Fold this protein.
Amino acid sequence: MLTNQKPMDVSCQGNAVLSLIAGAIKGCVFADIVLVKKVNGKTLTVFPMVTGTNASGGSIENQDVYNVPFIQYQAGNSSVKMTPRVGDIGLVIACDKDITNVKKTKGGGPPPTQRRHSYSDAVYITAIASLNDEPTELAEFTGSGINIKSPGVVNINGMKVHPDGKLELVDGSIVDGHTHGGVVSGGSRTDPLGAA
């Protein structure tokens, strides 16, 4: 039987202990980089991008991981909703214990199995910026202001800001370039908005 153990692994008591620990955690998942393959409502199908190796150093092919919940910035009923997209490269962590019952009931209690650090208990944390394309839709907090950019319409409670910056009110009227009929043109100007 082939093993990954080398002579130096048992050359002293410290190395022997480290070798035992390495063997004990082999196969455990703590954090991993994955590719999002499918979005299923509030869970994902992901594929681990770094393969394992066998005793000979050959690659062990990974398999899809199903029903992985994902993080969403949320406090009570307030949220920043960004559902991961197919093709995102992101980070998962594996919970210490079996989270099956929490996923089913949203309640606490003992784990249903003794499973530890498994992909079955993974949670997708976030996409990794340096491994994905530059975003075209964003809210950027610069420290001196907030930039909001979208290639499409930004909808704020029914009021819309179009990509060219034009503002559309709930009734459909465009504020920029808005004109009133039945008014005689002249040299006077109205007071600025908000002026008393």
User: Anything to note?
Assistant: Residues 72 and 81 are 6 Å apart (CA to CA).
